[in-house]
From TrEMBL:
The keyword Transmembrane helix applies. This is Uncharacterized protein. It comes from Blepharisma stoltei. Keywords: Membrane, Transmembrane, Transmembrane helix. The chain crosses the membrane at residues 12-34, 107-131, 143-163, 191-210. The lineage of its organism: Eukaryota, Sar, Alveolata, Ciliophora, Postciliodesmatophora.
Amino acid sequence: MDKIPKNHRIPRLCWVIFQVLQLSAIGLMIWALFTSSWVELNIPGFYGDLKWSGSLTSVRKGLRALEGSTYSELSSAYCSITQKSKDIPKKEPSWCEMFALLWVGEIVYYILEGVAIIAILIWIYTIGFRLKIHTSYWKTPGLCWAYLSCISHEIAFITWMILSNATFSGECDQESEGKSPPELCALKGPTIALILAVVLPIFSISYMLLTRFLPKIVEEKGIIKEDSEGKLNEADV
């Protein structure tokens, strides 16, 4: 295996830094998935506040009757009450839909975020493999994985926000009437997801620009030449 020329260290360093940023993005994705702080509902009442907060999958704190229950379980419980009785408190239909949508949002988010994480891992591999064998790593299929990771996360985040009826405005203290689910407060998990929704497109665009312009800069400056096998050699200048 040929030794990487000393004057090729700068373009090589660009890709190493890029891999570190990609791994950081995966770390944030996993942190968001497992944080216990995703949504909150806090409705003031005469006999005390009706308050609970939960993760992506379940209620973690607040009402004792809900604490520790998954959204799937709560959806079944509240929706069964709604179906069995016509004379029910006004919150029952709205809470039935609220927990049902949180459950669907959970499933959609897990699937699409899993796709995004796998895409980034493959994206990292395409860069790392090329770096290891010292070939023209800017001609990798990494762009398709970059776009897939970005699009998958964006769809996951937007879909979850719509289904959960969550907001970053902090207005989660209004009880809903009838069948409309109450508005929830988005907490730490959605905030991390929002940051990633901004960062991942920047990563993808940066990667596209690097793959487009870095080879030209390298070739114009005579830093690297490619032999017939695609291996990188020092330019004869």
